[in-house]
Amino acid sequence: MTAGGNARAQSLPWNLVALDDVAARGSGHTPNKKREDYWNGSIPWVSLKDTFRLDQGLVSKTTETITRMGLANSSAVVHPMGSVILLRDAGIGKSAVLGADMAVSQHFMAWSCGPRLDNWYLYYYLQYVKPELERISNGSTIKTIGLEYFRQLEIPLPATEEQHLIAEALRGIDDLIVTLERMRAKKREIKQGVMQQLLTGRTRLPGFAEPWELKRIGDLLAYEQPGRYLVSSTEYSDVGTPVLTAGKTFILGRTTERCGIYNAVPVIIFDDFTTASKLVTFPFKAKSSAMKILSARSGVNLRFAYERMQLIDYSVVDHKRRWIAEYSKIEVEVPDDVEQRAIASVLDDVDAEVNKLEARLAKVRAVKTGLMQQLLTGRTRLPTKVSAG
């Protein structure tokens, strides 16, 4: 990627050129935050608050905007629509194409591409080398890539027509990914609606009319302490039994320890401090003694109980254990076991649709990764008018 990469240049079908020779490089700045008249203006301003908008192609909105006065009294500049931006610290390597004229903070580099460089080709090339950007970054607290690196940055440069074709092929894959993501989001919305209706009895499935009973969560689920299933070492490996937490991470790693594996699945794991929970269908070991392992009591469908727990509005305001003293005493209305199973079956069907989309998304993303590797290294060439003639 940098000047002097002769071995790499020899392995490519295209010449390496300095990015500064084919694009105008710029950066940005943050106007004085204490000046209200510098903010909430008409100029979109890309900042770290917009990190979630990056790596999705076009960025058309920003969290914050600045005024003409803020622009004039800072080192910020307006980069033209179509410029390619790259985050060089605090989320390093994330990139996007500007969907309008925008300013950026000092955390970004920006390139306005000249006639020899297709902006979308540059975007996908930066996406392709993102792991390398992460690797070369430095800094003990906040990793960053210095300006000198970008002054020396070189990229392979096919003919402009081939650049366009490469970018079009990859944008086509991205369009499919966006479509699948929207379908997945819609399915998840449907599931949430179904849960709200069926798990609360607002809507009943055909054939069910018996009244529901008010029961405590502790009447539905028995608990077990995780002591005998705790992992001895947190030196995790890539193989072995999953080590779980009820939090967002869920699978912390894997262990080769053979003793103390919980096998009586399915169960629910419950964080006694945060009340977060996960449904587990495979053998596991636990990380924290604050976890409760919950199993279904007689006449209770575990899937129904788990999904009903997800609808409980419970605010955690202090740090203490909650299952025994509070959470298990929460009361909810529940149907008989036959209706519980029927409701759980409906939710299983919705989940199956979501899982199909997840699997398809994973395949398409894998195809995109492979296609980027082939097209952006020249291993696979797309036919152009010049090559066809």
Q: Can you offer a commentary on this structure?
A:
29% of the residues are buried. By secondary structure, this protein is of the alpha+beta class. The chain has 3 domains: 6-157, Adenine-n6-DNA-methyltransferase TaqI, Chain A, domain 2, CATH 3.90.220; 164-209 and 335-383, Bipartite methylase S protein (Helix Hairpins); 213-334, Adenine-n6-DNA-methyltransferase TaqI, Chain A, domain 2 (Alpha-Beta Complex). It contains 11 helices and 19 strands. The strands form 6 sheets. A 5-stranded mixed beta sheet has the order 2-9-6-7-4. The chain is elongated. Strand 15 (267-271) and strand 16 (277-280) form a beta hairpin.
Write the layout of secondary structure elements.
Elements: H1 6-11, E1 15-18, H2 19-22, E2 23-26, E3 39-46, E4 58-59, E5 64-66, H3 68-72, E6 84-87, E7 95-98, E8 103-104, E9 108-113, H4 119-128, H5 130-136, H6 147-152, E10 154-157, H7 160-198, E11 213-216, H8 217-220, E12 221-224, E13 241-244, E14 251-255, E15 267-271, E16 277-280, E17 285-286, E18 291-296, H9 302-309, E19 331-334, H10 337-375, H11 385-388
Parallel strand pairs: 3-8, 4-7, 13-17
Antiparallel strand pairs: 1-10, 2-9, 3-5, 6-7, 6-9, 11-19, 12-18, 13-14, 15-16, 15-18
